[in-house]
TrEMBL record:
Lineage: Bacteria, Bacillati, Actinomycetota, Actinomycetes, Kitasatosporales
Keyword Phosphoprotein found: no
Protein family (similarity comment): Belongs to the beta-class carbonic anhydrase family.
EC identifiers of the protein: 4.2.1.1
Molecular functions (GO terms): carbonate dehydratase activity; zinc ion binding
Full protein name: carbonic anhydrase
Record CDD domains: beta_CA_cladeD
Function statement: Catalyzes the reversible hydration of carbon dioxide to form bicarbonate.
Length: 176
């Protein structure tokens, strides 16, 4: 294992990389609405390069990421804005193999409360069965009353060892 750089040095490195990036950056003259009218909700896992893995280019999509790629209220907030204000229609959900949330339980929340004396308002949303968690995420999107477009919602598991997506068939959809 390599030793980690000083925490502050990491951000300095990013800022330096940005200065380099900007030297060859030209204004793409794009509108904020995603070209492919799609929003991708994915885990924040460092091993998933969403644009490369899905053949996406700058301006193509909205990417909404959090720990687990969980469809939380805040993800619904972003999807609602994505669809109603910026014209997206399709939703792609991506969980993955070896997700950190499979190694946690709701004890994480309990232990945290004991440590800091305050109960977090959020659920950990840990899971054991990644396929089932994708199905649950699909259902949360499909049944959201705030989203006008729920006919093209598909969920996948990304294999971090092969780079391949595996599609998960949705559960029996309740009538909306
Ligand atoms: Zn993950």
């Amino acid at each position: 294992m390599s030793t980690s750089p000083h925490p502050r040095a990491v951000t300095d490195r990013l800022v330096a990389a940005n200065a380099e990036y900007a030297t060859s950056f030209t204004d793409p003259g794009m509108d904020a609405a995603p070209v492919l009218n799609v929003a991708v909700v994915a885990c924040m896992d460092a091993r998933i390069d969403l644009h490369a893995a899905l053949g996406l280019r700058l301006g193509d999509c909205h990417t909404i990421r959090n720990a687990g790629g969980v469809v939380t209220d805040d993800v619904i907030r972003s999807l609602t804005i994505s669809q109603r204000a910026l014209g997206t229609r399709s939703v792609v959900l991506i969980h993955h193999t070896d997700c950190g949330l499979m190694k946690l339980t709701e004890d994480f929340r309990h232990d945290l409360e004991l440590e800091v004396g305050q109960r977090p308002s959020w659920a950990v949303e840990s899971f054991r069965d990644v396929d089932q968690d994708v199905r649950q995420s699909i259902e949360r999107v499909r049944t959201s009353p705030f989203l006008p477009h729920t006919d093209d919602v598909r969920g996948f598991v990304f294999d971090v060892t092969t780079g391949l997506l595996r599609e998960i068939a949705p559960g029996i959809a309740p009538g909306k």
